[in-house]
Design brief:
Layout: H1 7-14, E1 20-21, E2 31-32, H2 33-51, H3 57-81, H4 86-94, H5 96-114, H6 119-130, H7 137-157, H8 167-179, H9 187-192, H10 196-205, H11 224-241, H12 246-258, H13 263-266, H14 271-274, H15 278-302, H16 306-315, E3 327-330, E4 333-336, H17 339-343, H18 356-376, H19 382-394, E5 400-401, E6 404-405, H20 406-411
Antiparallel strand pairs: 1-2, 3-4, 5-6
């Protein structure tokens, strides 16, 4: 079995798919914690792309590392305290002693599932969560992204709550706190919204409206947006376990976070349809790429967001044919490499590597857990059984991917 990744950790990450947000307000759909976290980290990536544009590699990698880990720490914390209403939580956070008491209660709830990640991870998370003030650049980036993602949810439910006396106060709070962060490059554009930077952030959040497995009853239902966060987080932990360099594990996280972005344009096309015939799969891929260029990348390039467009193109593997191909960049050009190369001489920050095969494994693993969880919750249908069986079969004859013992990990779900 994997050295540090256990069934319990994967299920903990998935548990945000059960957690409802704004559940004291009338809303047009359920708003889930895992979806909000996905949107938050997409916005954090956008801000990072702007902020790190002129940093040297070492400084950039250090900041991105802090933001990704900080986002994961925050997510685990919120999985425990999610039922505390925001106004109450912010009052607790304003008092350092009260906040640390809350954190000292939260940490033991998480330790049984996170202990296998090692003492160093636990100490970094403890240190980060025990400090309530948003002083460092990484914490301020995460706060801006958190406020934007939460404000986006608020705007979904606002029209349904016109007589709620608290709504104007809540909206003013979002805008005031975001305005206090406008010194961070990109935040002003997010607040304005009438530019390609702001439009892309808003559009990415629309993936919360797209349900996965839309014709298959499940509990919980998952969205494309939430699924992308699951894949990103799984990819991060497996990358750490595989000994990936900083750039490689960061690229894996963000590729996971964007791997289904084309479904903004095509909806969620289930795997059996894509794999029914090679020509159908290729046709779908061509259409996705054409629409991606026309509706997302093209507008970003024309709207002075060439940096976002270029980075998205690399993460989505547009130059090499797929996001699920092992890739590096040399002299500004992306090209395919073997898995052995990526695990060996090309596992170097300066080559900007990313793990296509590991990401594909995480994509399938997230689907496996979605199906397995629904079955354990009593939703008994043929599609879920077939999906779980099919993914197991994929790793029966190839139980290891990039050094990860996938077959043994799946066996833990028996």
């Amino acid at each position: 079995m994997s050295a540090i990744i256990r069934k319990s950790l994967l299920q903990l990450v998935f548990s945000g798919a059960f957690m409802k947000r704004w559940n004291d307000r009338l809303r047009p759909m359920e708003l889930m914690e895992v979806d909000k976290q996905a949107h938050k980290m997409i916005v954090a990536w956008m801000l990072l792309t702007r902020i790190t544009a002129h940093m040297d590699m070492e400084e950039r990698l250090a900041l991105v590392e802090e933001v990704i880990e900080g986002g994961i720490f925050d997510y685990f914390f919120r999985l425990v305290i999610t039922d505390i209403k925001p106004p109450v939580f912010y009052k607790i956070k304003a008092n350092r002693e009260d906040y640390q008491k809350l954190t000292q209660w939260v940490l033991p709830q998480l330790k049984p599932r996170l202990a296998p990640l090692g003492q160093a991870f636990w100490e970094r998370m403890t240190a980060a969560l025990m400090e309530p003030e948003e002083k460092t650049l990484s914490r301020r980036i995460l706060m801006a992204a958190h406020l934007y993602a939460s404000y986006s949810e608020f705007r979904v439910l606002k029209p349904l709550n016109p007589h709620d006396e608290e709504m104007p106060e809540i909206e003013e709070s979002f805008r005031t706190r975001l305005s206090g962060l406008v010194d961070i490059p990109g935040v002003a554009d997010l607040l304005a919204g009438n530019n390609e930077f702001g439009r892309f952030a808003a559009r990415a959040g629309q993936l919360r409206f797209q349900k996965r497995w839309s014709q298959t009853p499940r509990v919980p239902e998952t969205t494309v947006l939430g699924h992308m966060f699951l894949v990103a987080t799984y990819a991060w932990f497996f990358s750490v376990e595989a000994g990936a360099c900083q750039a490689r594990r960061q690229n894996n996280f963000f590729t996971g976070l964007f791997h289904d972005l084309p479904e903004l344009l095509t909806r969620d096309i289930i795997s059996p349809v894509k794999s029914a015939d090679a020509s159908i799969g290729e046709l779908i891929k061509q259409y996705e790429n054409q629409e991606l260029e026309r509706k997302i990348l093209g507008p970003l390039k024309n709207g002075q967001c060439e940096d976002l467009a270029a980075r998205l193109s690399y993460l989505l593997g547009l130059d090499v044919g797929s996001e699920f191909i092992a890739t590096v960049r040399e002299n500004g050009e992306a090209h395919n490499v073997t898995e052995a190369d990526l695990r060996g001489p090309m596992n170097r920050d300066e080559l900007d590597p990313k793990d296509g095969p590991l990401l594909k494994m995480c994509d399938r693993l997230a689907a496996f857990i979605e199906a397995d969880t629904a079955l354990r919750n009593g939703i008994n249908n043929e599609q879920l059984h077939q999906a779980r069986w099919r993914i197991r079969q994929m790793y029966e004859h190839r139980p290891e991917v990039m050094g990860i013992q996938v077959g043994a990990l799946l066996a833990d779900f028996d």
